[in-house]
Write a structure and sequence with these properties.
The complex is a heterodimer.
Chain A (H helix, E strand, L loop, with lengths): L3 E4 L2 E4 L5 E7 L5 E7 L5 E9 L2 E4 L6 E3 L9 E3 L8 E8 L9 E2 L3 E5 L1
Parallel strand pairs in A: 2-11
Antiparallel strand pairs in A: 1-3, 3-8, 4-5, 4-9, 5-6, 7-8, 9-10, 9-11
Chain B lengths: L2 E5 L2 E5 L4 E8 L5 E7 L5 E7 L4 E4 L2 E6 L4 E6 L8 E8 L7 E3 L3 E6 L1
Parallel strand pairs in B: 2-11
Antiparallel strand pairs in B: 1-3, 3-8, 4-5, 4-9, 6-7, 7-8, 9-10, 9-11
Classes of the chains: A mainly beta, B mainly beta.
Chain lengths: 114, 112
């Protein structure tokens, strides 16, 4: 079955450490997104990519980095510059047809700071 | 800056009750409004409402869009414990393809 796979489900980060969250999709979607979810704040967009080798900053990109070397993969790195990284991270994809898009989500990664 | 506000933020009801969840928005160039249900981890798609489709219904769930007053409601009738979840409203404000702005979510708890 097609879908989006995020790993790991749980991740712990030490002070000053960079960590990378994986997101893979086999839906053949062009666009991929990373959202951060904090309690009471809904989902906020970190980065998005509409095509391979291209990505754009979202609303809260500071302290994060991404790459899009393959259509199927959109890893997110949480750098040491992100001072409050504890949150639930959701990866999503869509097939932007220029009309209306529906996001498909992975099951998320819960990141906590040790 | 696009803005989406949901209310109430949380709601507790008993099985069989009817609930109405609200979503108001201010966006640059409205294209669509989407409702998602998040039970544990991955949000799942419920409805998409656009200028050409302002009312949707699926079983006990229904949603309408008022483009003049800039809001949408999600109605759930005869609630069941399986309806307990976070309900997310999101709007495509036309700033970039597929880029959605989400509201804070409404946490619905249905007691037996």
């Amino acid at each position: 079955d097609g879908g989006i796979t995020q790993s790991p489900k749980y991740l712990f980060r030490k002070e000053g450490q960079n960590v990378t969250l994986s997101c893979e999709q086999n839906l053949n979607h062009d666009a991929m997104y990373w959202y951060r979810q904090d309690p009471g704040q809904g989902l906020r967009l970190i980065y998005y990519s509409q095509i391979v080798n291209d990505f754009q900053k979202g609303d809260i990109a500071e302290g994060y980095s991404v790459s899009r070397e393959k259509k199927e993969s959109f890893p997110l790195t949480v750098t040491s510059a992100q001072k409050n990284p504890t949150a639930f991270y959701l990866c999503a994809s869509s097939r932007p047809d220029g009309i209306n898009e529906k996001l498909f989500f992975g099951s998320g990664t819960q990141l906590s700071v040790l | 800056e696009d803005k989406v506000v949901q209310s109430p933020l949380s709601l507790v009801v008993h099985e069989g009750d009817t609930v109405t969840l609200n979503c108001s928005y201010e966006v640059t160039n409205f294209r669509s409004l989407l409702w998602y249900k998040q039970e544990k981890k991955a949000p799942t798609f419920l409805f998409m409402l656009t200028s050409s489709g302002i009312e949707k219904k699926s079983g006990r769930l229904s949603s309408i869009l008022d483009k003049k007053e800039l809001f949408s409601i999600l109605n759930i009738t005869a609630t069941q414990t399986g309806d307990s979840a976070i309900y997310l409203c999101a709007v495509d404000g036309g700033t970039s393809y597929g880029k959605l702005t989400f509201g804070q979510g409404t946490i619905l708890t249905v007691h037996p």
